[in-house]
Design a protein that fits this description.
Layout lengths: L2 H10 L4 E6 L4 E9 L3 E6 L24 E4 L3 E6 L5
Antiparallel strand pairs: 1-2, 1-5, 2-3, 3-4
Length: about 90
């Protein structure tokens, strides 16, 4: 899927849970919070103890629970909309 297709899918999916796979083979689950022309920002799913390795030193580095993380569309290898929250 190309850059433009990821952008359109993410714009339509604001507020929905997704799993994003990056080209570095990392997987991130979250809810689409915001979409800009070059990034998708997601808020992590799950409990506070298991944040899934989101960047910037984790959420104990001053960003707090609920902070959205941005991923460049060029770094996305896969985008899956999740059917439900668990």
């Amino acid at each position: 899927m190309g850059y433009h297709n990821y952008y359109l899918k993410c714009r339509q999916g604001v507020g929905r849970p997704v799993e994003i796979g990056t080209k570095q083979r990392n997987r991130h689950r979250g809810i689409i919070h915001r979409v800009t022309p070059n990034r998708v920002h997601i808020r992590p799913l799950g409990d506070v103890g298991n944040l899934g390795g989101f960047g910037y030193g984790g959420f104990n580095a001053g960003y707090g629970w609920g902070a959205a993380n941005g991923f460049a569309f060029g770094a996305i290898a896969s985008l899956v909309f999740l059917a439900f929250l668990w």
